[in-house]
Specification:
It is built from 13 helices and twelve strands. It is of the alpha/beta class and 327 residues long. The strands form two sheets. A six-stranded parallel β-sheet has the order 3-2-1-4-5-6. Strands 9-8-7-10-11-12 form a six-stranded parallel β-sheet, sandwiched between helices. The N and C termini lie far apart (44 Å).
Length: 327
């Protein structure tokens, strides 16, 4: 059985799609699974050793450079690579016109199916017109968790139940292979940055948490000049905190994978720490907790909800409990 997964972005959504791979192989161990994903997330998907082939998709970059002969050649090469195989099943779990077009271009053998969502979940970016590319559309409940959504679509199509804890297929950290910039001792990482200000937790709360964890080293990553300034202000109030250099995505993944404790707002890197089942506190300030909360391990604590950010005392208590459990 040959299967193609189409989930191109974003970081958290690609991550949340990974358990589909383990589910399929648990019930169909001879299946060969390929994946189309935005080029920036190729290395994340490749962490899962059970994905046979990763096909990079670079629509954002291609759209800016279509006048360039080399870019046009790259687009043609993508479609050649996409169509090199005949698939039995193509799954689009994103439900956008652009992912539907990728699905449409993929080849299926006799009796092959192209399967996607019949509807979006609450407040999702689902585009209903994407159904025109399906041979079968699977309905999902309006409040289906981001991880469970793809799992249920595959399960309904391939004849099994997605009723086990999600398996992301991610390798455990190797203590002997820590990057040079990473402390040798245990550390906590604060994933404080996110693009939308309403999803951020108040700086005073981060400072109270850092002080409560002292003398444990606190690492502060950042992804933009504004986030770097915010990290520097936090570090100025926390003698046990260090602002990291700008990290590549995979360095940030390693940061989450090796953390003794990860605390973060609703952002992709926080969800990566939870997927690695590191001791993780997920903080929800202005996004629905039901959609992405890490609900597969007691090592993950989810606090807050839309318009209900948790207090620093709640997060401090959760962090201390997780560290005590890990001893």
């Amino acid at each position: 059985m040959k299967i193609l997964l189409v989930r191109v972005s974003s970081l958290g959504d690609v991550l949340h799609n990974l358990p589909m791979v383990a589910d399929i192989l648990r019930h169909h161990p001879d299946a060969q699974i390929d994946w189309v994903v935005e080029e920036g997330y190729v290395s994340l998907v490749r962490l899962n050793p059970h994905v046979r082939k990763v096909i990079p998709f670079a629509l954002r970059r291609w759209k800016k450079g279509l006048k360039d002969k080399a870019v046009r050649a790259e687009v043609r090469a993508f479609f050649r690579d996409l169509r090199a195989e005949q698939y039995d099943y193509v799954f689009d779990t994103q439900g956008l016109i652009k992912t539907g077009l990728v699905m449409a271009a993929a080849r299926v053998g006799r009796g092959g199916q192209k399967i996607g969502m019949a509807n979006g979940t609450e407040d999702s970016g689902y585009e209903g017109a994407s159904r025109i590319f399906h041979t079968r559309s699977i309905p999902v409940a309006l409040r289906t968790h981001a991880v469970q959504r793809g799992r249920e679509i595959a399960a309904a199509s391939l004849g099994y139940a997605a009723d086990t804890p999600p398996d992301f297929g991610l390798p455990a950290p190797d203590p002997s292979r820590r990057p040079d910039w990473m402390p040798a001792a245990d550390y906590a990482v604060f994933f404080h940055g996110t693009a939308r200000d309403a999803k951020k937790w108040a700086p005073a709360n981060w400072i109270a948490l850092g002080q409560a964890l002292a003398p444990m080293t606190i690492l502060l990553p950042w992804g933009s000049p504004k986030e770097k300034e915010e990290a520097e202000r936090l570090a100025a109030a926390l003698p046990n905190a260090r602002v990291l250099p700008k990290l590549s995505m995979m360095d940030a993944v390693e940061l989450a994978r090796h953390a003794a404790l990860a605390v973060g707002v609703d952002t992709g890197l926080t969800h990566i720490a939870a997927a690695f089942v590191r001791p993780t506190v997920e903080i929800y300030c202005d996004s629905p907790r039901w959609k992405t909360e890490g609900n597969w391990s007691p090592r993950i604590v989810n606090l807050g909800d839309t318009g209900q950010p948790p207090s620093s005392d709640e997060v401090i208590a959760a962090a201390r409990r997780l560290l005590e459990q890990a001893r």
